[in-house]
Amino acid sequence: MGMSLVEEKATIAACLAGQGEEFRLLVDAYKSQTMAMAMNVLGNRQDAEDVCQEAYIQAYRHLARFDPARSFRTWILTILYRRCLDVLKRKRRFRTAFQRLSHEPALKNKTMDEVPAERGDLARIVQGRLSPKERAAVSLWANEGLNSAEISGIIGCSPSTARVCLFNARRKIKTILEKRDAGAR
Amino acid sequence: MLGHAEVVGFLFRLVRFRRLRDRIWRHIESCPSCQARLAGREDARRVLFRADDAGGLDGLWPAVRRAISDAAVKPVPASAFTAAPSGRRNAWRWAAAVGGLAAAALLTVGIIRTFMSGTVRAPAFAGANGGLRIEYARIAGQTAQTIIVREKNPDMIIVWVEKI
């Protein structure tokens, strides 16, 4: 599901005019796409849900700064990617600080029961082999059909660097699938 | 021996000149041998979470709505994003830097005094034997990330609360 640029602009104008409820249209239009992207970058449903929520709240707060020449989808994915990086950075910092201690998150992660087991396993392998930037790039390319120029705008690099990320990600995925298929034979 | 696709891939990652890299990329896009070494969109979708894995996400809008109906969260007017005059901006930067240094100095003094005096006060917490559970924590009215750290020593639980 998505919205045309005209619909997006009308909805954003309504929100800025004080009709906050209209923001629901934008959330509903892009929630699945943003959630998929967050899950691919973070590999964890609970964190992905939190990050999506924060990204939409941040987008709402900064609606006046939205550039009407861009699509809302690109904008929300850009915000979301930055929030995902913040979460990964925070987790890394925490792990470094408390490496010797056993820890448990205050909120237990929800399971990935809704994802088919085979794909869930592969997704976990991908999480381990690809960098966050590569995961974001390949997710945007495969799921959203974006090209390297559009991806570069979201992950904040040059199109040339986005191509390298995409190239590395696709090569690694190919290797993972080949190894898996060879093992299945 | 390296094959054609491996050599091209190696060069693509090695070359730093944008024009040359773009030329190699154009080759990769049109060369069947190079494409065969890369996962296609369908292959990638086999290993990625997709929009249809996201589930109903019925709770997302109510949560966003609760947050944005809070008086503190309103769209910031466009005028707020215009750049401040550079003099004022510099003054703010200086103020922030001085404030940060002062806070760091206070923290350092506090830590030194605590460890020098040898009296580290243990934080009181309830129900440690039965497990500690924190529903949520807020910093300055905003929901904060909470992580509970339990060391092997059962008498100590560290609660890490960090501003999101």
3D structure, described in words:
The complex is a heterodimer of chains A (185) and B (164). Chain A has 185 residues and is mainly alpha-helical. Chain A has 2 domains: 1-113, RNA polymerase sigma factor, region 2, helix turn helix motif (Rna Polymerase Sigma Factor, Chain: A); 115-185, Winged helix-like DNA-binding domain superfamily/Winged helix DNA-binding domain (Arc Repressor Mutant, subunit A). Chain A is 72% helix and 2% strand. Chain A has helices spanning 5-16, 23-42, 45-61, 72-97, 117-129, 132-142, 148-155, 159-184, and one strand at 102-105. The longest helix of chain A is centred in the middle third of the chain and has 26 residues, at 72-97. The relative contact order of chain A is 0.11. Chain B has 164 residues and is mainly alpha-helical. Chain B is built from 6 helices and 3 strands. Chain B has a 3-stranded antiparallel β-sheet with strand order 1-2-3, with no helix packed on it. In chain B, α1 (4-14) runs antiparallel to α2 (18-30). The chains are: A mainly alpha (185), B mainly alpha (164). Chains A and B meet through α2, α3, β1, α5 and α6 of A and α1, α2, α4, α5 and β2 of B.
Number of strands of chain A: 1
Distance between the termini of chain B: 51 Å
**Overall average pLDDT of chain B:** 76
Oligomer: heterodimer
Q: Which strand order do you get reading across the main beta sheet of chain B?
A: 1-2-3
Outline of chain A, from the CA principal axes? Answer: globular
Instruction: Tell me about the largest β-sheet of chain A.
Output: none
Low-confidence stretches of chain A: 104-113
Shape of chain B: extended
CATH class category of the largest domain in chain A? Mainly Alpha
How many distinct domains of chain A? 2
Tag the structure with descriptive keywords.
heterodimer, A: 185 residues, mainly alpha, Rna Polymerase Sigma Factor, Chain: A, Arc Repressor Mutant, subunit A, 2% strand, B: 164 residues, three-stranded antiparallel sheet, 6 helices, 3 strands, 12% strand, extended
